[in-house]
DNA sequence: GTCCATACTTAGCATCCCAGTG
DNA sequence: CACTGGGATGCTAAGTATGGAC
């Protein structure tokens, strides 16, 4: 069962190819809410009858059996045969369940034991949530410092120098259990975007062939457009329309009357000017570059850190987003709109009362200063495109993010313990008398098996038309009673998060198939597939099945368990370091495929692949030469039988070995890169894979963790690197 | 249940930067 | 030593989830 997610279909290879075509397809659906209502009314009585019919068709096929024959298609295709590293692709053969699902004393390896949770950290969270009143103190020695801000600050500053050597192991300390996120918080506030600098007078803008001097407000917005001139989207109707509308808002009455047609605007001189500027920046002297670097470092030291509970912690995004033109992902109805400049009076500052409050720039005021220690953000503002709130928060290496991340994986491990029960349950629910329960059960099956996202409803016309599981519409799936020799095949084709296409053909169990047919009956293509379901209903149900369980936990769980399983299967002891790392990447890749983490093939892909191939060819030739030389040396040595020729044999043998190794290295590199062409590994590595699995794997095979995690990643996963031992089991 | 606000995680792409190469 | 490919980092959009008002 552990590997079933791997199997999910033939999604990848054709997926991106169709991206463009797919975009053209119109999603004309509208009025979903109404549709949902309508559906309900329509099917109200029918459900019960249906149930009778359906309840006969079931067979008692075991979930487990179902998944025995699975293997990864996408990787199959891509594995290179010529090089010596065609270790089998991550074909998933079924393993005895036991290997995975009973976990022998998993927790024992954790060094620290937070008093309150011997069992798991998941429970720790529970405690936190339930006993809101019982304030647990963090480490006692911290307490006094927290209260006096002066001291906290000085302490913090001392830490600046100290901390690099002795890293704070927050994971060895207790956590808050009272729902507060911190006791003391001090920071310097955000860094605002540089003010607009009007263009030099020689850079002309013209309208309808005539020069025209814009006042700075309008000119600034024009420069935003000019800077994007090379992008395809400046040619899109919606983009242009939105842009012009917002641009005109910044114009004087006079400008407004004149400038009515975007097609008559000439942004080219502006665009050229900015290109020249960026060239100039690139060509700058070393000194100049160093100056800039130093200034950046100064800003980072000043604004890039805060003091939270006695520790100096890195802030993730201390710079306020500069104004510009909004470009959403995919077919976004708001593309081209003006993203306003954020001013101090838009800013809410959050810090502790007893801290030194950040100062707004001279002559300005913050919108508000509050002291809310139930949240983790330092600064917030409301963005003008969607009206959503943006935050400045801490870096992933910080305690506050790290604890949460750790807890996320503990929840996923919790799911591991009861996933069998939950699977049995939803399979049972496929037969339910109630439509809403059947829908819930089928949706959950998709979320589990295919690692789909939950699929919250979205406001129509505000964002690109994308969906997740609960928001799938009839038009997003096709049912094939029989397809390519397989029975009950479901074809998924929809745009998910970031308008990334999800395309997959999956055989499902008969009952699921029949249910889908039922759900689709008498519906229009733009009706919701699961009209009786939404994410909050689903999550409420999940919450009852397991504490802390939500739809996304399945993604985390399935991703991590897949990595662990794949690593076990793909890593072979005899292989060298490089090959092991390739195996790791392949395991990682299996997860990325499961989670549909795609990327556009790098622009330079073909070229760089060619270069690499050329290198490989050259190395092959070199190897041939080296071997020939070795041979002749050997022959020579046989005849001469003296020390000198023996030595020469040795040297040449070494040369051959060295060359062989270099060749292998190149070939591995080529394989890895080819397989990675349109797959992004970073997202799963950073967000879905319990780092302790990777750390344990590194320890087991004595692979330096640096080969797997770069510096930033090591900082983020410091807790895992510190605590996971070789025998860690997810 | 629905709607809305809020907070926080997850996501891909653009740009930066630096190590390795010729 | 200059160049450059590609990984690291920055950026910010787009998700998930929850809780409270009605």
TrEMBL record:
Keywords: Biological rhythms, DNA-binding, Isomerase, Nucleus, Topoisomerase. Residues 14-25, 34-83, 94-159 have a biased composition (Basic and acidic residues). It comes from Liparis tanakae (Tanaka's snailfish). Its main location: nucleus. SUPFAM superfamilies: DNA breaking-rejoining enzymes (SSF56349), Eukaryotic DNA topoisomerase I, dispensable insert domain (SSF46596), Eukaryotic DNA topoisomerase I, N-terminal DNA-binding fragment (SSF56741). GO terms for molecular function: DNA binding; DNA topoisomerase type I (single strand cut, ATP-independent) activity. It is found in: Nucleus. GO terms for cellular component: chromosome; nucleolus. Its EC number is 5.6.2.1. Releases the supercoiling and torsional tension of DNA introduced during the DNA replication and transcription by transiently cleaving and rejoining one strand of the DNA duplex. Introduces a single-strand break via transesterification at the specific target site 5'-[CT]CCTTp site in duplex DNA. The scissile phosphodiester is attacked by the catalytic tyrosine of the enzyme, resulting in the formation of a DNA-(3'-phosphotyrosyl)-enzyme intermediate and the expulsion of a 5'-OH DNA strand. The free DNA strand then undergoes passage around the unbroken strand thus removing DNA supercoils. Pfam families: Topo_C_assoc, Topoisom_I, Topoisom_I_N. InterPro entries: DNA_brk_join_enz (IPR011010), DNA_topo_DNA_db_N_dom1 (IPR013034), DNA_topo_DNA_db_N_dom2 (IPR013030), TopoI (IPR001631), TopoI_C_dom (IPR025834), TopoI_cat_a-hlx-sub_euk (IPR014711), TopoI_cat_a/b-sub_euk (IPR014727), TopoI_cat_euk (IPR013500). Belongs to the type IB topoisomerase family. The keyword Thylakoid does not apply. Gene3D superfamilies: 1.10.132.10, DNA Topoisomerase I, domain 2, Topoisomerase I, Chain A, domain 3, Yeast DNA topoisomerase - domain 1. The active site is at residue 688. GO terms for biological process: chromosome segregation; DNA replication; DNA topological change; rhythmic process. It comes from the Eukaryota. This is DNA topoisomerase I. Residues 1-159, 631-653 are annotated as: Disordered. The gene is TOP1_0.
